[in-house]
Specification:
heterodimer; A: mainly alpha; ABC transporter involved in vitamin B12 uptake, BtuC; 2 domains; two-stranded antiparallel ribbon; B: alpha/beta; Rossmann fold; six-stranded mixed sheet; four-stranded antiparallel sheet; 10 strands; globular; binds adenosine-5'-triphosphate; binds magnesium ion
Chain lengths: 402, 257
């Protein structure tokens, strides 16, 4: 299906199912349970999973396949957000024109930044991309204030043209009248599930761009990108002009980032320069490495994991710890809470940092490698028989494990 | 000279190359005839690899020029030179260690078919049956078909070399440059490689081969140039070179273990 072989089709269908079922899957605990705060099935967070998933999928096309580490991809995220808000201001709240503009403008930015940065490789390339992103960030606060609205951030004002806006038209981000923030809550016993249009909109886009990335991974182009990572000079002597390949990979991943930035503004009609800060560029690097650079699904897992930590783990404060450990004798309770406390709540960065170190040291292939190892333990027997069956067809497309 | 009337496909004209004060190449003139195998031999450090580097555009000559089939190669980029039909096997295998053996061989095939750049993001590798079949065919020729799906980095040194040969052969180059193609191979693999190279010779491929193994040289070469200290000290048919006293002094006596 979709031009893919049986294995990839199965893989894509599983990803589609998981994405569409997210509002249910991430809501495992009943409202009444004390674990309900670990539920992640609320619209704002699920949208972030999908959006940062898109960001990381695109980043991975550059970093995972070619090994070129950009430290400036947040610039495209910011450009995407500004594009969408500008279309709100000029036309109306329909997100579509803005998203198209976001992809186009970030693509143009990527052509310029990529063309210059790719004159160097390794650490110099990283530094050049970082410099461009910081330049964009500072310009957004200074010279470009008429476009970015500086520190206040870009938003829609009542005196904006909005030439397409009618009295009746939604005054919130929407797609042809379907409002992003619309949600249906479904109660099943003690469980409450929220089905939000904005999430499904981002999720479907995420599935589409995931499919595109899958195609790129399986294309001759993707193979040549991997070859660039493996031994770039050898390609020169094999007749490949590697520069345009690199630039194409850079631009595609920049467009993914622009789309992600646009979607952030499609969910929440604001754009600010802080989205372009180097920490945001660093975050997508962490997501990709944590999940597994160069694998298809890893970056998405990494993105979800980090966003989960940022939003859920950070909420565990001292009060919550007391309800958990309240059953312990007082002295012991205080002792345990003193130990655990620095790692939760505001300390979530510390825990994430430690996890990151552990993953990089023990699982260089990221969370995907961890999952593959676990799956390997369970599947040893069943896999053998399966392999024997379709070894002929599967081995032909054999790719490093995803 | 009579030789000028024949079909010379590669001309190296008065090439010099200095590294700092070191004259790695001096006064090099070379004429390689179409369809023939031209061997370059000489002691370690004689400048043999440097000469190939100048031909494929890795190094710019200090002086002189290389002309291939009427076009000046000097100043062109390596990928342009390859696109003109020049392929090379390196002295230390240059491969894509993280890619499968099959993909190592397919990558140069795409360069041959699609040119130096093609934005082929939407095609699928599995749809490229022709390229894959040809790659498999050539892997059979070099005896590596069983390793098709292994990471190239896991091959032995000799196997890497044979794979690199396959990477070149799939491009059907007009000129194939081989820098010690059998170094690190077992006697058996060396002999199969000789047979393979003899087979492609029948298809009319021009070859320049650097080799220390005299068994290989004398089985393949139509003409030999002997390089020592950056200069060509002797040149001619294999038998002439073998009996040249200068060569015996500089090289042959010492190297034929
Ligand atoms: N890039 C370089 N920079 C400086 N010196 C170099 C460079 N490449 C080669 N040389 C020097 O030029 C001389 C010729 O080297 P070259 O590699 O061409 O020898 P060779 O004939 O291929 O020897 P071998 O049989 O050992 O491969 C050597 O003295 C070498 O050290
Ligand atoms: Mg050499």
């Amino acid at each position: 299906m979709f031009g893919l072989d049986a294995k990839d089709t199965r893989f894509l269908l599983i990803v589609m199912f998981l994405t569409l079922a997210t509002p249910v899957l991430l809501q495992p605990f009943p409202e009444t349970s004390s674990l309900a705060q670990f539920n992640a099935g609320y619209p704002d967070l699920m949208q972030r999973f999908a959006i940062f998933g898109i960001f990381a999928i695109g980043f991975n096309i550059l970093f995972g396949l070619t090994g070129y580490l950009s430290f400036g991809h947040a610039a495209f995220l910011g450009v995407g957000s500004y594009s969408v808000v500008w279309m709100y201001k000029l036309l109306d709240y329909n997100v579509l024109p803005g998203l198209i503009l976001a992809v186009v403008v970030s693509g143009l930015f990527a052509v310029v930044i990529g063309f210059i940065s790719l004159r160097r490789s390794g650490i110099y390339f990283s530094i050049l991309t970082l410099a461009f992103a910081q330049m964009s960030y500072n310009l957004a606060y200074s010279v470009l204030t008429p476009i970015t609205n500086g520190e206040t951030g870009l938003q829609v004002y009542s005196n904006d043209p909005q030439v397409l806006l009618t009295e009746a038209g939604p005054h919130l981000p929407h797609l042809f009248g379907l409002v992003m923030s619309d949600a249906t809550r479904v109660r099943l016993g003690d469980w409450v599930f929220t089905f939000n249009f904005g999430y499904y909109f981002t999720a479907i886009i995420a599935i589409i761009v995931f499919y595109i990335s899958l195609r790129i991974f399986r294309s001759p182009f993707g193979m040549i990108l991997r070859a660039i990572k493996s031994n770039r000079t050898r390609l020169d002597y094999a007749g490949i002009n590697t520069k345009p390949y690199m630039l194409a990979a850079f631009v595609v991943s920049g467009m993914y980032a622009g789309l992600a930035g646009g979607l952030l503004a499609a969910m929440d009609p604001l754009a600010g320069a802080e989205r372009m800060q180097w920490t945001a560029s660093g975050e997508v690097v962490l997501m990709t490495i944590l999940g597994g650079a160069g694998t298809l699904l890893g970056p998405v897992l990494g993105a979800a994991f980090i966003k989960y930590f940022e939003n859920i783990f950070s909420k565990i404060n001292e009060g919550v710890l007391h309800t958990w450990f309240g059953w312990l004798p007082d002295g012991l309770e205080d002792f345990i809470i003193t130990i655990v406390h620095p790692f939760v709540g505001e300390g979530w960065h510390l825990t994430l940092g430690l996890l990151f170190v552990l993953v990089v040291v023990f699982l260089p292939g990221g969370m995907i490698e961890g999952l593959n190892r676990i799956a390997g333990l369970f599947n040893k027997k069943s896999e053998k028989s399966e392999e024997a069956q379709d070894s002929k067809s599967d081995a032909r497309e054999s790719q490093p494990a995803e | 000279m009579a030789i000028e009337d024949r079909n010379i496909v590669l001309h190296v004209n008065d090439v010099h190359k200095t590294f700092g004060g070191l004259h790695a190449l001096a006064d090099i003139d070379l004429a390689v005839e179409e369809g023939k195998t031209h061997a370059i031999i000489g002691p370690n450090g004689a400048g043999k690899s440097t000469l190939l580097n100048v031909i494929v555009g890795r190094l710019a000559p200090t002086k002189g020029a290389v002309v291939f089939d009427g076009d000046v190669l000097t100043g062109k980029k390596p990928y342009e030179i390859n696109q003109m039909g020049v392929a090379r096997v390196f002295q230390t295998p240059e491969i894509f260690p993280e890619l499968s053996v099959l993909h190592n061989v397919m990558a140069p095939a795409f360069a041959k078919r699609d040119g130096a750049f093609k934005l082929n993001m939407w095609q699928l590798l599995r749809g490229e049956k022709d390229v894959q079949d040809e790659a498999e065919h050539i892997l059979e020729d070099v005896g590596l078909i069983a390793r098709r799906d292994d990471h190239a980095g896991s091959l032995s040194r000799g196997d890497k070399r044979r794979m690199e040969l396959a990477m070149c052969l799939i491009q059907h180059p007009r000129l194939l440059l081989l820098d010690e193609p059998t170094a690190g191979m077992s006697r058996h693999d060396t002999n199969t490689t000789i047979e393979l190279l003899q087979k492609i010779k029948q298809r009319g491929m021009t070859k320049v081969i650097i080799e220390h193994d005299m068994h290989v040289v004398f089985s393949l070469a139509d003409k030999i140039s002997v390089l020592a200290g950056g200069r060509i000290i002797s040149e001619g048919a294999p038998d002439e070179v073998r009996n040249d006293p200068k060569v015996q002094v500089a090289y042959l006596g010492g190297a034929e273990e």
